[in-house]
Amino acid sequence: MSQANRDVTVVVPFRDVQNHFGAFLESVAAQTALARARVILVDNGSTDQSVAIASEFADRHANVDLVAQPEGRAGDARNLGMDMATTPYIVFWDADDIVPERSLEVLRNTIVKTRATVVVGREKHVPKPVKAPWHKYFGKNVKTLSSVVDIPDLIHSASCWNKIFDLDLLRSQGIRFGTGTAFEDAYVSQPALLLSERIALVDAPVYEYRRRGDGTSVMDTIWDLPQNYADQLVMLEYLAAMRQTLTPYQQETLERFLIRSMQGFLLRAPHVFGEADCRQLFERCRALYWGITSEQFARSTHDTRHRLPYLALHLGDFDLFYRPASVLGPVYGREGDLYVDYPGTSWGLPLTKVTSVPARIEGVSAGDGGTAVIHGRFSVNGIPDELLAQLELQVWFERSGTTLPAVNHGHSHDRPDQAGAVFSVTVDPRQFPAGSFPVRLVVCTRGRDVSRPCAVSPALAHNPPVNGFHGLARITAEGGNAHLVVESGQH
Predict the structure, then answer these.
(1) C-alpha to C-alpha distances, 22 to 26, 68, 382, nearest whole angstrom
(2) Quick one: which of 83, 182, 239, 359 is 20 to 30 A from 173 by CA?
């Protein structure tokens, strides 16, 4: 096919990917629509054999060009490729992934037939699958939207490699990749989604993102590198500057992305930075998120522990952000729900509602006088582990008419990866009627007491005590929850 008939440009930045580059390039060579494409390989300063691999590939394919952009990062290389493009459509792939053979064909045909300016396809993460919030909107047929506000969750699709773009949209709106920074994709994907007046979703696997086994993938170190925090914040500040040019619905959609994509960084920042650097981050984020409603923060975050930093930002409470255990009190019960007990305002109630109280039974041991001691572990989402010892606990054996006081042993970690606090309750099975009784942990508060079901640890479920409670009772897992099963009636 002549160059004049090529209508898609594929831009591939690469740097020191010799161990993965060959497999990626073979997946490019296998594309059923490769003849319609111009492929631009952009060396981003490789010091290994990547350039030799790319050069050999370009020699074998007349529609492949190899160029160099030794300065900057992947965003600079992508911008160079975009500037060289002369086709109406453009895609951006990474050199250490795999592209299914019909990807280019599917993306190209969809954007032509739907006249969309952005097409989003389904991506696959290897070796560990990832379920993204927008995946549930894919269907068997191509779905066309007049705006991203029709499916606001789609704004979280920040990567560019599962998309094809109308090049005129990018150029007319001045949309370019971030330069000299990480997370450069969001500088293109988010503005393109927000400003596009026709978006298509195609339920076909168009990309396979491979997480490297050597720990060097971006996602392996995203929370560990201080520079990532700086790059993420700069990117969000850049996008936030768009708000004044957007409609109210577009603004609300953008706010979802601004909040959700920073929540992990805000949660971990106090463990990564010293107080001075954390305070600087805190003040910049206060300006970034000013004016957003508490309902929007609650809707755009995972759980209570991710919401409290945004409460701190809104109220200007740096201690709540940096050392939450110094300002938080015990939880408060209200209408069957628990709330973090923080002396704030009613504005923050949606952010202080506790989303989960994980509790599970982990063991059983013999007590005095024929009793048994049930051991468990619990946590309260949003409450630092060191505050859990302040909570008064009971254990309710539902349907038995029995609620017993529990001993809260507080924060105790036998392993580095363990979280939460330990509790125990002494049970005399001879005081119970025969039957099966769901086990619920009761958190006693100055408001209402609130109970939550207990699960059973896998170890206890697979290896229950041989004699149960002296042959009278045992702990079982039924429907995912712990039950006290008493074999005979009261004695």
Answers:
(1) 6, 18, 46
(2) 182
Topology classification of domain 3-217: Spore Coat Polysaccharide Biosynthesis Protein SpsA; Chain A (3.90.550)
% pLDDT > 70, the chain: 94
Check residue 384 and report its DSSP letter: -
State the DSSP code for 57: H
Measure the CA–CA gap between 153 and 155, rounded to whole angstroms.
Answer: 5
User: What phi and psi values does residue 261 have, to the nearest 5 degrees?
Assistant: -80, -5
Give the CA count within 13 Å in the CB-facing half-sphere of 80.
23
Q: In this predicted model, which residue has the larger pLDDT, 216 or 272?
A: 272
Q: Which amino acid is at 352?
A: T
Euclidean distance between CA atoms 491 and 488, whole angstroms: 8
Token digits of residue 49: 């054999």
The whole-model pTM stands at 0.91
Residues forming a β-bridge with 395: 404, 441
pLDDT tens for each residue of 114-162: 999 999 999 998 888 888 888 999 988 899 999 999 999 999 999 999 9
Mean pLDDT of 176-203: 96
Helix (H) or strand (E) holding 193: helix 186-195
Which residues does 126 contact at the CB level (< 8 Å), separation at least 6? Answer: 98, 208, 209, 210, 211
Kindly report the length of the chain. 491
In this prediction, residue 2 carries a pLDDT of 54
Assigned token pair, 285: 């984020």
Show me where the domains of the chain are located. Answer: 3-217, 221-352, 359-486
pLDDT in tens, 242-291: 999 999 999 999 999 999 999 999 999 999 999 999 999 999 999 999 99
Q: Which residues contact 167 (CB under 8 A, 6 or more apart)?
A: 9, 82, 85, 87, 88, 89, 90
Strands (E), 324-456: 329-334, 337-341, 359-366, 372-378, 392-397, 402-405, 407-411, 421-427, 435-444, 450-453, 455-456
Class of domain 359-486: mainly beta
β-pair partners for 403:
396
* CA angle (203, 209, 213) in 5-degree steps: 150
> Which letter does DSSP use for residue 46 in this model?
-
* 482 close to 475: Cβ distance less than 8 angstroms: yes
What are the pLDDT digits (tens) for 312-350? 999 999 999 999 999 998 899 999 999 999 988 899 999
Query: Helix/strand/coil (H, E, C) string of 80-112?
Result: HHHHHCCCCEEEECCCCCECCCCHHHHHHHHHH
